[in-house]
Design the sequence.
């Protein structure tokens, strides 16, 4: 991380903080999930920086980016990313997103067409309407509110108990990001989400859907989406759930690297 830059740029009326590995290589923008931050991509970026300029923005309400009182639905998050791409003067970047970031990436890719080079969706929040309502009615926001009142060491100890296989570095980044996530960011859970089938149909560039065998997006859904778009292929990482970039970092990085080597070489 020695030569990485940490900067803030103005886009879509807010300030977006980002980390960047740099050098004259293809730009790869990595979008994190709810309660994450750009820094949570650090191990992934380290694995890809030899071939790519990995750019890791923090979404509004996350990390060191602006936290306005509202504007957290996917349309706004996508506009932030489009503004960010424009502000940095990026030409045909690769777009990658996990969870909330995956849905955001799908919206951006559906709107930007071939101005995006390719898109990688890591278990995006492609939820059926009833599941969206269940998540919205659940106590996830209240759980986060309680976490914000806790000591970082205490939260970190619990995270280590729950995820003993994750590296200490990654757990520290995840907990730090959680503690810097504004409660208003949970507005993104408000139904309805964009129709993910329509989004996938509209993507006009090579696309990879990476899922776990126990995540949000099922293999059946992945097959259905592949049938909707000739540009899309999918890969299943065994023994992985929704947190696949965190739980299977080597396998995830290998899947991304392999896709990019074959699809956009």
Sequence:
């Amino acid at each position: 991380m020695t030569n990485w830059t940490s900067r803030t740029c103005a886009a879509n009326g807010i300030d977006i903080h980002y980390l960047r590995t740099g050098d004259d290589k293809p730009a790869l923008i990595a979008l994190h999930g709810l309660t994450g931050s750009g820094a949570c991509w650090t191990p992934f970026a380290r694995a890809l920086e030899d071939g790519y300029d990995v750019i890791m923005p923090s979404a509004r309400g996350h990390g060191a980016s602006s936290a306005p009182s509202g504007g957290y639905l996917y349309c706004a998050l996508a506009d932030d990313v489009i503004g960010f791409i424009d502000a940095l003067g990026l030409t045909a970047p690769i777009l990658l997103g996990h969870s909330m970031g995956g849905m955001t990436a799908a919206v951006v890719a559906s709107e930007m067409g071939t101005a995006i080079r390719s898109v990688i969706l890591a278990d995006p929040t492609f939820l059926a309407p009833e599941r969206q309502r269940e998540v919205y009615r659940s106590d996830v926001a209240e759980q986060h509110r309680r976490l914000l009142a806790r000591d970082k060491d205490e939260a970190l100890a619990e995270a280590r108990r729950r995820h003993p296989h994750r590296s200490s570095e990654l757990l520290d980044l995840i907990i730090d990001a959680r503690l810097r996530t504004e409660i208003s960011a949970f507005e993104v859970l408000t139904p309805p989400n964009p129709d993910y089938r329509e989004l996938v149909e509209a993507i006009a560039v090579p696309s990879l859907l990476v899922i776990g065998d126990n995540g949000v997006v099922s293999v059946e859904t992945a097959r259905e989406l592949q049938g909707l778009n000739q540009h899309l292929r999918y890969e299943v990482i065994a023994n992985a759930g929704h947190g696949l970039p965190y739980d299977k970092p080597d396998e995830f990085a290998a899947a991304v690297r392999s896709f990019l080597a074959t699809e956009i070489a």
Q: What stands out?
A: The longest strand covers residues 5-11. The chain has a mean pLDDT of 96. The chain is about 40% helix and 15% strand. The first helix runs from residue 42 to 48.
